[in-house]
Amino acid sequence: MQGFPGENEHALSVVGSKPMEWSTVPYNAPRAPGPNGKQRTSSLESPIMLLTGHQSAVYTMKFNPTGSVVASGSHDKEIFLWNVHGDCKNFMVLKGHKNAVLDLHWTSDGTQIISASPDKTLRLWDTETGKQIKKMVEHLSYVNSCCPTRMGPPLVVSGSDDGTAKLWGYASKGLHPNIS
């Protein structure tokens, strides 16, 4: 499938209740350059890739550090990993949260994801195996956000409805040792 409007009047999309069901949807964009006057330069097979399969609202999506994979977190308690190039195939589902996934971030090396949930936890996932590496539990209410360090020691900060922000060392147990 060529990726330019007019060459093929369809965009590839994923539809249905299972993440691996495929379909095409009409793409009727004009053949003219985009609003900025430039031709599209991405390597996507279509100008729009529709990634569906979650059973409920999607709250967060993030690219990995190389831009080759997108992770999506949903009210359905799952994290989907999607290839960005080619047919944008869903290749993994991370399961373990007991409530929605409100936020997620890739670690700087792209081998792990940290996620935040109203189940009062942060979770660390291995993106090669899909296994949960660590569950961090110390918040007293919903965990709304998280963000790992980009450089330096493996740390993540989390924010919660309990009115606290916590700094965690995710290579070790519990909170960062400098937090009282």
UniProtKB/TrEMBL annotation:
Domain of life where this protein originates: Eukaryota
GO BP: any one term: mRNA processing
A Pfam cross-reference name: WD40
Chain positions of WD repeats: 51-84, 94-135
Cited InterPro entries: U5_snRNP_Component (IPR052234), WD40/YVTN_repeat-like_dom_sf (IPR015943), WD40_PAC1 (IPR020472), WD40_repeat_CS (IPR019775), WD40_repeat_dom_sf (IPR036322), WD40_rpt (IPR001680)
SMART domains assigned to the protein according to its UniProt record, in alphabetical order: WD40
Record flagged with keyword Phosphoprotein: no
Alphabetical keyword list: mRNA processing, mRNA splicing, Repeat, WD repeat
UniProt-recorded name of the protein: Uncharacterized protein
Species name: Medicago truncatula (Barrel medic)
